[in-house]
Amino acid sequence: MTTSTMRLAALLLVAPVTVTLAACSSGGGGAATTTPATPSRTSTPPPAPNLSVAQANAVLTDYDRRNNAAIKKAASYDPSGWASADTGVLLASDRRQTAIAKALTRKEPPVALRSTATAAYGGVGPTDTQGTWALIVGKQTMTNPTPSSSASSSPAGREYLTLQPGQSTAGWTAFGSVWSPADAPALPKPVTTAPAPLTAPQRQTMANAVSNAAYAVSNGGTSDFGYAAVIKQIRAFGWGDSVAQKDRAAANSNYQCAGWGDAKRTPATTATLLGTPAVRTLRAQGATLGLVSLDCDQTLTAPDGQRITLDPRIATVDGVKLPTGREVTLRAAVQLLLVVPDQGKPAIVAGRVGYVLPRGAD
């Protein structure tokens, strides 16, 4: 994962599962025995539903080793290392960051990251139709920060990173990352027993929340959620220095999104994303957690009388024809972490948005 998105971290993981079945032996008397012997059985207790903190830290240590090696390669404009650490949205983000650095001939000594876990959700058995994953809460620090990427520059709040299967605690690859503001509600506590599959009502409330979250990204409306501060930040993303600060209120940002990985690009507001890789779910106490990944076209429209300016080198990477005029469309990846309680309004507790390479170039 590129250093620009690595701050305080909580990690979502997908892991292989090893299940041990205990053999049962029964004892008993023959026909002449009047009192049967008590059968003896050996049993293995069911596995804990969550990764232990020690297991989570082992996963992170191995991930850091591969990610730091990829960061070092990318410092020389070589993106080939990223696939050993990241996949999905994060891999797409990594590759664009490296392409932009190369286009700008931007070089810095590579940083090194160290991740530590403080808690874990899931990760022991399948939690949705896509397989096993877990949410690991922790933090990430830079062991050798550069002037432009300092460990002390991290904002208040929490960041969540997602990973998918490796072998035991090795080889897990990250597929997403979301950040929560400091005032975001805490996640509900992890379950203490193996969760059952989502019930029909739980699936419906999650599906409704996913659709409403896609609408919120598109139009900014958050009345369906008890908390959704990250939506405002996502919709304000992208202007940089292209429009003067005093004119931002008159500028417009519009998102048209599909589920990540949907080649047909069915609008996320109406598509059935639950049950696809675009929505990963697991149960917490009294709620369902959902990580939503969207592949969006973000159209930025400048106020009347202004035009959007882009560095020609960046425009080439992003496939934008210059001059742009008042409007430009870029490909953006949006991720949201939803908490959908069994009772009450859902919340969008964390999110992220970042530009990725044009479709077909990633």
TrEMBL record:
It comes from the Bacteria. Residues 1-22 form the signal peptide. Keywords: Signal. Residues 25-50, 141-161 are annotated as: Disordered. Residues 32-43, 147-156 have a biased composition (Low complexity). The keyword Signal applies. This is Lipoprotein. It comes from Metallococcus carri.
